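fyi for ur records
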Amino acid sequence: MFEPRTALSVTGYRFRLSPAAAPLRRQQPLARPSTHPRGFSTLELVVAMAIILAISAIAIPTITQSVRTYQLTDAATQVAGILKFTRFEAIRRNTPISSVNSQPVANAQATLWSDNNGDGVTDPTEKQVVLSSNATLVPPAAVPGAAALATAAGVDTLTPVNPSAGTIKFDQRGAATPAAVYVFYIGNTATPENGFRAVVVLPSGSVQVWTYTGGAPLWQQLS
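which gave:
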């Protein structure tokens, strides 16, 4: 007996297939790589936390000092601003107007306002600023190098304004009256390491802001 054979013709060629041939095996599909992200090991987490703590230990003191420096400069700018506003009001209204300040206790919040009606009391219609206890009015005795500020400003003497209850009057020409060189000191006696600022009012009514550097020179003018 002869086994039947099957003939296959492809483009002129003949192939003979044997039915007794072993069937082809199906190729198993390749395993796909897992798409799930791998988690961090305990060692990797510990190393990452150590790096974060080290960077924080270096950066936090710098950031804190920058914030305190900003608070001091901002407080001095606010004091200078209320003084300039009072001076301009005196010129605009063609009448003397005083800038008044008050502070209940040392290193507490201080309030400064333009006393337009001259009653010595803050009114809702009068412009005012409030300084926080972190950067507030302080007496000259608490400021190192206060005596050197007169030399830096190019004047013979300075007249400190009382932090608890002080007044600077501007006449209708905008000049300080009585004529003198007045100064506000700003800081906090409980934290002298944070530094100090000074706001100087010249007899003409011009206002300057100074910073205590602690080096040479001791005082530098900011504006």
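The domain at 56-221 is CATH 3.55.40.10 (minor pseudopilin epsh fold). thats all i got for now
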